[in-house]
Amino acid sequence: MIERESEGAGFVLFSMGDDFVIRQATPRDVGEVSSVLTEVAGWLESRGQKLWVADELSPEKIQSEVTAGLYWITARGDEIVGCLRYQDADPEYWDDVPHEDSSFVHRVAVRRKYAGKGLARKMIEWAKNRARDEGKRFLRLDCADRPKLREVYEKMGFIFHSVKRRSPYNVIRYEFDLNKLD
Fold first, then answer.
1. What whole-number distance in Å separates Cα of residue 47 and Cα of residue 112?
2. Which of 6, 39, 47, 170 falls 20 to 30 Å from 12 in CA-CA distance?
3. Are 47 and 102 in contact, with CB atoms under 8 Å apart?
């Protein structure tokens, strides 16, 4: 269960249990957000599953997105252990659907030492609840065409929407109907 804990200092803090919280990233978090993304990208590449280009994960490249309030972080105490990008519009990957009824998540990442603890699932559950609370009908995401990754999202209740060509590769698009939340 994810519960609103407090508001203030420019962000909202949600408790995820087990001493983990999710909060909006601030400009002072840019280096750590970049570090989490780079760590996960490096791990995936070492397994032959390149996902993100390291250059696009540098603090300089994500600074404007963090400053705009798009990144949310999962933290345990002072340690940032995961992040995701949450946005109300996605003209790059979802240009063919109405954005008024949707929110979108990208770059869900958890540091390797915290992998397998259900944090990514809790982060996605937080995003589902946030989108529903904002009056949205769908939470949408896209991913690489990898069977195990697709299975993860399908187990979270996401339904295949379509394939979108984004040169030089295809992305698999999924949506979750927020009317299905309890």
1. 13
2. 39
3. no
Single pTM value for the model: 0.88
The token duo for 62 is: 């994500």
Are the C-beta atoms of 120 and 141 separated by less than 8 Å?
no
pLDDT at 19: 82
Q: At a CB cut-off of 8 Å and minimum separation 6, what does 158 contact?
A: 141, 174, 175, 176
Domains and their CATH numbers in the chain: 3-140 (3.40.630.30)
Of 9, 18, 11, the residue nearest 122 (C-alpha) = 18
Which residues in 115-158 belong to E strands, given as ranges? Answer: 138-143
**CA-CA-CA-CA torsion sign (30, 140, 54, 166):** negative
What is the β-pairing status of strands 20-24 and 71-76?
A: antiparallel
